[in-house]
Design a protein that fits this description.
The structure holds 2 protein chains of 2 kinds.
Chain A (H helix, E strand, L loop, with lengths): L6 H32 L37 H5 L8 H6 L6 E2 L9 H16 L4 E7 L6 H21 L7 E7 L10 H7 L1 E8 L1
Parallel strand pairs in A: 2-3
Antiparallel strand pairs in A: 1-4, 2-4
Chain B lengths: L3 E3 L25 E3 L4 E2 L5 H18 L3 E2 L19 H6 L4 E10 L2 E10 L4 E11 L4 H16 L8 E6 L5 E2 L6 E2 L2 E6 L6 E2 L7 E6 L5 E6 L6 E6 L4 E3 L8 E6 L5 E6 L6 E6 L6 E2 L7 E6 L5 E6 L6 E6 L6 E2 L7 E6 L6 E7 L4 E7 L5 E3 L7 E6 L5 E6 L6 E6 L6 E2 L6 E6 L2
Parallel strand pairs in B: 2-4, 2-5, 3-5
Antiparallel strand pairs in B: 1-7, 5-6, 6-7, 8-11, 8-33, 9-10, 11-12, 13-14, 14-15, 15-16, 17-18, 18-19, 19-20, 21-22, 22-23, 23-24, 25-26, 26-27, 27-28, 29-30, 30-31, 31-32
Helix pairs in contact in B: 1-3
The chains are: A alpha+beta, B mainly beta.
Chain lengths: ~210, ~425
């Protein structure tokens, strides 16, 4: 039996249990899927003539197997979990519940739209209180490489500051600047630039 | 480089002074040089001889101290088989002031390169040397000859044996990340002309903004290998790595002081991008700037007493200068809408190169600290960023998108002689070694 002393440790423990539970459930469902594969697909199964004689009258015996597809048992996973928290970090970040906050050119100030996005993201963080995130600051190619490293930092910090003002704990949010090193849109037009001036939320732990 | 055994040139007895060694051109014009093919003593030396001839030509052309007679105009002059058969009459008719005679011989993995530079008027060699060493990199022999010729003939410190460090995605590796597939950038070094590229970092993360130590034996750079930006130092000839900032905050954009004892850098360790200075071992960290705006991209004055940097404290990024003690702040650029990446020239020049927004993109400009005048090196061909001076101050390396992907170019400090250095992948943030 481990004695859990630190607060951080305490916080991480439930997520680890959840993860373990998730693994078990995934394994169970995989096993079920593997078993199901051994049987012929129900829809493709022809009606067995010997067991289902074409009786014109009378109610069908209760024991007579239906020729209709057997309903696949519902996945227990879908009931036990809400879907989002069961997904892997990679899957979550690839199709993230967090929306990026976008910035005007040469600016690290959140506008109304940006604040609304961060507010919504703060709601997600409150819903999943074990999640830790990194806010990545990104810039478009219209700034210089060096200054952009600092501007991206300011964008990330602006978002973190706003998250904190919404009650999110500081130790759940890290910031990092990538300047213009990792454009999300490789284009060279207004649309691409607007897409690349962002604070991007990455879930690093759950 | 192997052993370079010197043979003293045979000066004409009646002209023993140094002045007699210098070949001059017609009054007011640069001396006219001919670089005929070096003679291969055997077929195995042919490739090296060809390379050495071409590289020597390129190295001499780079500094623009000599007029290099176009090679096709002397294709009919028969090559001299030995140093006493140089057809001086033919060279004189061509208007040459100086002509090279070189031979390359090969023994196993070694080569021997003999080089003479003749004064056409006196028919005497003013430069006569023999180099022996490994055959693996014949370019180095040409670079050495070029540097020595520039030194002897023009009292000029050439850059033919200097190196460029830069960041590149040329290995085309992608990071395995949780967000998107992202390009790996590694630190590379290459000869000043882009030849002999060598990969320095191998961590398959983001490695950017490399800078040379003044002794050209270390490269400091920004690496995200730990998941956040920190400063690392690669001791490139020892295969060792140091992390002087040790993950205290996030640190980036290192720049060595001219004496190599300190590194200026940007850090957010106190919550805001500020300029700091530390000893190269990470000790004695001192904060130089103190302003809630962004302060970034430091560069040292040649004496190490001042630091230029970029700050947006006036609303837009502009270049400022502050004492290395943090005192006597002043703004340098006042007529730019956006200026970044200052780079202080080495002596004897006293100027600061930077990238200035000139439209949709950037151009390289130079602020002359003596006159306060600004001149422009590039004029809107692509976008041009990240200037870095050559150690003799006569050239600036920078990045440009003019050829499609971002590549490193060099240009004279007078804006002439632009030359593309890199072609593989995209290449960023050059630094020029001593």
């Amino acid at each position: 039996m481990q004695v859990i002393t630190s607060r951080a440790r305490n916080r991480r423990e439930p997520s680890r249990v959840l993860t373990k539970a998730g693994v078990v459930l995934v394994l169970l469902s995989l096993t079920a899927a593997a078993c199901a594969k051994k049987q012929p697909p129900p829809l493709a199964q022809p009606a067995p003539p010997s067991t289902a004689p074409p009786v014109a009258t009378g109610p069908a015996p209760a024991a007579t197997p239906s020729t209709e597809a057997l309903p696949v048992p519902p996945e227990p996973l879908a009931i036990a979990e809400d879907g989002i928290s069961a997904r892997s970090l990679d899957d979550l970040n690839r199709d993230s519940p967090f929306k990026p906050a976008y910035f005007p050119l040469d600016s690290a100030e959140l506008d109304d739209v940006g604040r609304a996005v961060v507010t919504a993201n703060a709601g997600i963080m409150r819903k999943y209180p074990t999640w830790m995130i990194t806010v990545e600051g990104h810039c478009d190619e219209r700034g210089t490489a060096e200054y952009n490293l600092a501007l991206g930092e300011r964008r990330a910090v602006a978002v973190k500051t706003y998250l904190l003002s919404l009650g999110i704990a500081a130790d759940r949010v890290r910031t990092i600047s990538y300047g213009k090193e990792f454009p999300f849109d490789q284009g060279h037009d207004d649309r691409a630039w607007a897409s690349n001036r962002r604070a991007h939320f990455v879930i690093t732990s759950k | 480089m192997g052993i370079a055994r010197e043979q003293q040139p045979a000066p004409a007895p009646q002209q023993p002074s140094e002045i007699a060694v210098v070949i001059s051109g017609d009054p007011g014009t640069p001396p006219r040089y001919a670089v005929p093919d070096f003679i291969a003593a055997s077929p195995e030396a042919a490739e090296a001889a060809k390379t050495i001839t071409q590289v020597l030509w390129d190295d001499l052309a780079f500094e623009r101290e000599f007029y290099l007679i176009p090679r096709d105009t002397y294709s009919t002059i028969p090559p001299a088989r030995s140093a006493d058969q140089v057809p001086f009459a033919a060279w004189r008719e061509l208007g040459a002031d100086a002509v090279f005679f070189g031979t390359v011989s090969r023994t196993g993995n070694d080569i021997k390169v003999e080089v003479r530079l003749f004064n056409i008027r006196t028919q005497q060699p003013v430069f006569s040397k023999e180099y022996t060493g490994a055959a693996a990199n014949p370019r180095l022999y040409a670079h050495t000859v070029a540097d020595e010729i520039h030194q002897q003939q023009r009292s000029l410190r050439g850059v033919a044996r200097t190196k460029l460090a830069f960041s590149s995605d040329r290995n085309r590796e992608r990071m395995v990340g949780t967000v998107e597939s992202r390009d790996v950038k590694e630190v590379y070094m290459a000869d000043y002309d882009g030849a002999n590229p060598r990969r320095i970092t191998t961590n398959r993360q983001l490695n950017i903004t490399p800078v040379w130590s003044p002794d050209a034996r270390s490269i400091a750079y920004t690496s995200y290998r730990r998941g956040y930006p920190d400063i690392f130092v690669a001791l490139i000839y020892q295969g060792l790595q140091q992390e002087p900032t040790k993950g205290v905050g996030q640190n980036m954009l290192p720049m060595y002081s001219p004496d190599g004892t300190r590194i200026a850098f940007m850090s957010n360790r106190e919550g805001n991008p500020e300029i700091y200075v530390m000893n190269v071992d990470g000790s004695n960290v001192r904060r130089i700037t103190n302003h809630p705006a962004i302060d970034v991209t430091p560069t040292w004055s040649p004496t190490g007493t001042q630091i230029a940097f970029t700050s947006d404290r006036a609303g837009t990024p502009q270049i400022y200068i502050v004492g290395a003690d943090g005192l006597n702040l002043r703004r340098l650029t006042t007529s730019e809408s956006y200026a970044d990446r200052p780079t202080w020239s080495p002596p004897p020049f006293n100027e600061v190169a930077f990238a200035a927004r000139t439209g949709p993109g950037y151009d390289i400009k130079i602020y002359d600290l003596a006159t306060g005048a600004t001149r422009q090196l590039t004029f809107g061909e692509g976008t041009n960023e990240s200037p870095a001076y050559s150690p003799n101050g006569r050239h600036v390396a920078f990045t440009s998108s003019r050829a499609g992907r971002v590549q490193i170019f060099t240009i004279g400090r007078d804006g002439r002689g632009i030359k593309q250095i890199t072609r593989d992948g995209s290449n960023f943030t050059p630094s020029w070694s001593n």
